[in-house]
């Protein structure tokens, strides 16, 4: 044991050396070229779907890369025109014209900057994912329904319903070479990611959109196919036009600004979060990302470009290509500028059906089965479906509003709608009425119907698993209990939740509807806290053990069964936990552990008598834990007000088995009387003699464990660590032994990297399993 205060060990943080700027450029330049090759065809296709000039897609891609890439808060995110805004932009172009749409983009960008400066970045993430995914899926379906007509040689209709109605005619009509090119693009995009592993990696690494567009265009040029091609109508520099303010319709203009700003912000933030998960190195500054996106949209609108967002397709490509910093996104924008100025003539050779095929695949990929399965598990699939139908059948804003309203209604239903079930008795037992959730006035009609199923005069147990009971529900339930009792029946109210009928009867100073802290969950509270109320309702009282067993089978067995099923063949506990037999010390509660975590050994006074003449049960447990279970941690836990320490200190153990057992605490008493450092520190803090001795006893038992041959060997080999704990019952606080003192066992102070010192077994932090 050490005699001085020991500082908490600080784990060394030997992380990787940050890369130099040369190393970053060596990774960022190739990555930027890959993203550039992906971005060009996508930008052109999105411009087509948005009914915007094709040059607007290239301008937005360049601005998104350079401006948003340099100013944004997500270093590896790549911004540009996104499929998620195509329907909105197309509607704005049709309503206002291109010049006013650019003005809307400018104003939306300014609003995004305001969002960022007012630190509302994370607030945008409060929108239900079901609404966001439904919005994107609706946009995807709209794109697919419209662009399929272009692939098939026809023209896109005015709305989704018209597109669906006209599709059979298009499918039955004769198709020319344009359709073959579009279908070839769709097939290549779908099959390219599924190439066999035998194909060289550099071949599989070619971006599929670029390859599809290039091959189809080369085929159209080489064969001189009579197909409609892209018309630029001038250079990119000539396409730069200032935005135009609307002539009236200011309310619709403001709605357009708000719609673009919100959708672009939400999509950018969700993409930034997804990119963070991909590379896992640093977290994005979401408020700064909004500022960068806003600056990009402002400049893009001023130059005649499309609105921009963070785009997950380009961003994921950037991460997969090995980008290390924001230089990759900026450089990809530079390459787009060079391409737009020097090689724009090549773009005019691309057939329109080729871009339409590209858009069909992009739109289809916005509808994700994985999202549907996840939302179905969470009960939010109806929100997703309603949002899709609203976007496809009406417009994007209506669909989003419909989805948000339904999401709020579902949340409200979960908050105020209780589950009420009536269970018939299997034999002569009572009927069970199980009420779960918040029992409020909307549930009273169902509650009345369910209670009406209980026969008059029958014994009933009402299980209230509630966290709130409003005035109306309280009155109705109490009236039924009294009425059923007058009819010869018996009612026992078994309250599992934190606020129920009996809480109201005994509450002081408040009426029904008041909220107050309820009892802790039953698995944390003693029998007396939750069985006493039920026993007031029925006599004679049941045996508490049997009552507890019934409660376990009714509420906990099904929940814990999957874990126990995995542990049925073997156990692999994390620690041997030696503690006192005191009923107030509950190891699994104190350590937030469950089945299979602790190999627990309990005795009076948490002693470790490991000598040749001593009781061998502790030694056998230690050897089994080390040699068979291979636990990495041995814990000794003492507690305040220990009766064993009181008897050992006063010599009142007697001559029987208890006295002989407490002889094992003699070393602890002697070292306490000799002024053990742990006792000195505890005394200075006002600890009683018994509590001082309990703390010293923990350190002494750790020393004894360290002298055991099996433990000493494991310590030398670094296979085990020793941990000393002390539980103060009055405050329900746990402390850990550090050197010559017990310190609060908070994670903030005790990191997982703190290591045990073999020669000083008490000097260790409680480990945090990883």
UniProtKB/TrEMBL annotation:
Note the superkingdom of the native organism. Bacteria
Cross-referenced PROSITE patterns: PROK_CO2_ANHYDRASE_1 (PS00704), PROK_CO2_ANHYDRASE_2 (PS00705)
Q: Where in the cell does this protein reside?
A: Membrane
Question: What is the catalytic activity of this protein?
Answer: hydrogencarbonate + H(+) = CO2 + H2O
Q: Reply yes or no: does the keyword rRNA-binding apply.
A: no
Known Pfam families for this protein?
A: Pro_CA (PF00484), Sulfate_transp (PF00916)
Q: Where are the transmembrane segments?
A: 29-49, 56-76, 96-118, 130-152, 172-193, 205-225, 250-275, 329-347, 353-371, 383-412
SMART domains reported for this sequence? Pro_CA
**Spans annotated as Disordered:** 502-521, 751-770
Alphabetic keyword roster: Lyase, Membrane, Transmembrane, Transmembrane helix, Zinc
Q: Where is the SLC26A/SulP transporter domain?
A: 25-385
Q: What class of enzyme is it?
A: lyase
* UniProt topology in membrane: Multi-pass membrane protein
Q: Does the keyword Chloroplast apply?
A: no
EC number(s) recorded for this UniProt protein = 4.2.1.1
PANTHER family documented for this protein: SULFATE TRANSPORTER
Query: Tell me, what does this protein do in biology?
Result: Catalyzes the reversible hydration of carbon dioxide to form bicarbonate.
Instruction: Tell me the protein family, please.
Output: Belongs to the beta-class carbonic anhydrase family.
Name this protein carries in UniProt: carbonic anhydrase
Instruction: List the source organism.
Output: Actinomycetospora chlora
